From TrEMBL:
Organism: Kitasatospora misakiensis
HAMAP family xrefs: EF_P (MF_00141)
Domain Translation elongation factor P/YeiP central: 68-122
Full protein name: Elongation factor P
GO molecular function: translation elongation factor activity
Length: 187
């Protein structure tokens, strides 16, 4: 248990019957008239839903222990993803629903942060950008345009992104894992 006066960004709270909420931002407010309160913006850990919630100052809230560990993606076992803890070499099998869109940018040997609470995997977090090879793309033809054009390209993981016309098959590119955008070529 913690007090609302002890809130910090990133802290995970257990509210509303066991749902986990991460504190995105908070603000202690002491109005001229009336009691102090804490205004927060909370993000539900599992769904990503963001809500505003106000607590009276000093209210007790239950905190959740979320363990974030760096793990390496080992292989796919059927539909599931198997990650290995680099310190203990323990393997952890994670369902595709938990991995979500991160699966589009996962290659064997890639490292990710795996967040768990009481043994249950909450989510995985990839680095902001990863380097992947273009598996297939059409040759780009420069036409009459004033700005640079883009074309679709398939990555070695199977994900499809938009790349500039000069990128060719077999080139290594940097991709933003948050929105799948092309960030540049890798030398």
């Amino acid at each position: 248990m913690a007090s609302t006066n002890d809130l910090k960004n990133g802290m995970v709270l257990k509210l509303e019957g066991g749902k986990l909420w991460s504190v995105v931002e908070f603000q202690h407010v002491k109005p001229g008239k009336g009691p102090a309160f804490v205004r927060t913006k909370l993000k539900e850990v599992l769904t990503g839903k963001v809500v505003d919630k106000t607590f009276n100052a000093g209210t007790k809230v239950e905190t959740a222990n979320v363990d974030k560990r760096g793990m390496q993606f080992s292989y796919k076992d059927g539909e599931n993803f198997v990650f290995m803890d680099m310190d203990t070499y323990d393997q952890l099998t994670i369902e595709p629903a938990v991995v979500g869109d991160a699966a589009k940018y996962l290659l064997e040997g890639f490292e990710a942060l795996v967040a768990t609470n009481d043994g249950a995997v909450l989510y995985i977090e990839l680095p902001a950008a990863v380097e992947l090879t273009i598996a297939e793309t059409e040759p780009g033809v420069q036409g009459d345009r004033s700005t640079g054009g883009t074309k679709p390209a398939t990555l070695e993981t199977g994900a499809e992104i938009q790349v500039p016309l000069f990128v060719t098959t077999g080139e290594k590119v940097k991709v933003d894992t948050r929105d799948g955008s092309y960030l540049g070529r890798v030398k």
